[in-house]
Amino acid sequence: MIIFLHGADTFRSHRLLQEMKNKFIKDTDKDANSLVFIDGQSTSLKELSEKINTGSLFVKKRLVIIKDIFKNKKTGIFKSLQEYLKKFEQTEDLIIIFLDEEIISKNTSLKIDAKTLFNFLNKQKFVQEFKPLNNQQLLAFIKKEAALYKKEFIVSAANKLILASNGDLWTIASEIKKLSFYEQLNIITEKDVQELSASIINEDIFSFTDALSAKNKTLALSLLEKQYAAGLSDEYLISILVRQFKILLQIKNHLISGVRAEKIAEKIKLHPYVIKKGLTQANNFSEDSLLKIFNKLISLDFANKTGSSQTKTELMLLISQL
How far is the CA of 243 from the CAs of 229, 240, 249, 251, 271, in angstroms? Predict the structure, then answer.
């Protein structure tokens, strides 16, 4: 059986994946011996074949999760993988889940072999695309998420949270959790969101990345503890750091290419304030070190979302190695 989950809304796709993984462990493989995660960005057909064909002697069914296969730079893998997968389409004892972000959009396209693999996966029986939610859907999501904590948002508070988070579900879910523990009453008001809004937290994130860029490990570790104490989740922290270091890497690349500082905001399409802060930080890193940190954060993000990492410990280790 082949399952294909993809789309720009990575929060809901990862949540569904987690539910599938938990169900497999609960119903089939309590020790998770037949559960395999594969980083699709760097894998080869040989590695895929070896891991797919290696199972537990005590569990008949196997679950293989392959993340971001369409980010793989080895373009030859797409054609050979499609042929390889055909024999597993009707197999009940092997479940292969492909998880990808938005694959085709106005700004992105796929080459022929990758497009052929996409079409093959998209024709499977179990396929779901996760598109960004519109405002009404976001309001419904907030209502349902808050109900998990026996809380209720007034509409103005929910709208303020959507505005502060730019509609990002990772941020929204993290904020709802924090607000629910912060507010003893069952109703979350606009004032509550204002006092603990994501925009205020982002200032602390800037302080955190400032400390990282200055190689101030003591301050960076202290600020990391502060973020956890404020109730931020691993997912939110990593997503913010990935975004921040992606911006720094883009700024650094433009600086190296000779683009003037005042033109970088226009090219990256970010607020000049963000670029101004980022220019100071980017100048404290080499391009190579930024790339290494960014790749480490991407790997940590993958490990965290698949439940195979002690995220806080890994982040502390990353800071200590600066």
Answer: 22, 5, 10, 12, 14
pLDDT at 143 exceeding the cut of 90 = yes
- Nearest-5° Cα angle at 21, 16 to 27: 120
User: Please, what is the average pLDDT of the chain?
Assistant: 84
* Same domain, yes or no: 184 and 234: no
Q: What total number of domains does the chain contain? A: 3
Give all strands of the β-sheet with 62-67 in edge-to-edge order: 35-39, 62-67, 94-100, 2-6, 126-129
Q: pLDDT class for 238, splitting at 50, 70, 90?
A: confident
- Pair (71, 107) in one structural domain: yes
* Same domain for 233 and 171: no
Which of the four pLDDT bands, split at 50, 70 and 90, describes residue 204? low
Domain limits for position 33: 2-129
Q: What angle do CA 25, 27, 32 make, to 5 degrees?
A: 25
Backbone phi and psi for residue 3, each to the nearest 5 degrees, phi listed first: -120, 135
The residue type found at 287 is E
Q: Which of 206, 220, 205, 215 is nearest to 286 (CA)?
A: 215
**Would you say residue 12 has pLDDT above 60?**
yes
Alpha carbon separation from 301 to 7, 115, 298, 307, 308 (Å, rounded): 17, 26, 5, 10, 10
Q: Rounded to whole angstroms, how far apart are CA atoms 164 and 194?
A: 9
Q: Distance (Å, rounded) from C-alpha 103 to C-alpha 20?
A: 22
